[in-house]
Design a protein that fits this description.
single chain; alpha/beta; Immunoglobulin-like; 3 helices; globular
Length: about 150
């Protein structure tokens, strides 16, 4: 009888853990996307702590890397390899900025908001090159309030 109770409790824990499973958000790295050339698609993602983002090299010649100053405190910056997928686990709440290193100035950027955008002001203050500045202005406008 004791074993049945232990087994039932263990099953309840396992089933509960499955219900709270983290999501994986796929972002394609494209030569041409819906918003124009050299694009991450989608370029704006809202996620929850524990989720992952996978950058998928749909077209050759792209990578994904975090942008200095656009990573929440305690989160690790990342740099992917050219033409290879990159999966990033998002454990910290805040705003994450990503770029394709060779196409950064052309505006190939993405913004990921995890939970509350606690570092939004810091991320908005980062100086952006070329078209990245204009693209980020539009992406920041999509960030939900709730600092």
């Amino acid at each position: 009888m004791k074993y049945r109770i232990v087994i039932a409790a263990a099953l309840a824990v396992v089933m509960g853990a499955g219900a709270a499973q983290a999501a994986d958000h796929q972002i394609q790295m494209l030569n041409r996307g819906e918003k124009g050339p050299m694009a991450f698609q989608p370029d704006f993602v809202v996620a929850q702590p524990g989720d992952t983002v996978t950058f998928v090299p749909t077209d050759k010649g792209h990578d994904a890397a975090s942008i200095a100053g656009m990573v929440p405190d305690g989160a690790q910056p990342v740099t992917g390899e050219m033409g290879k997928p990159l999966t990033v686990k998002l454990d910290k709440e805040g705003v994450y900025g990503f770029k394709c290193v060779p196409h950064y100035g052309m505006g190939m950027v993405a913004l990921v908001v995890v939970g509350k955008p606690v570092n939004l002001s810091q991320a908005e203050a980062v100086k952006q090159p070329g078209l990245a500045e204009k693209k980020f202005a539009a992406l920041f406008a999509e960030v939900p309030s709730g600092k």
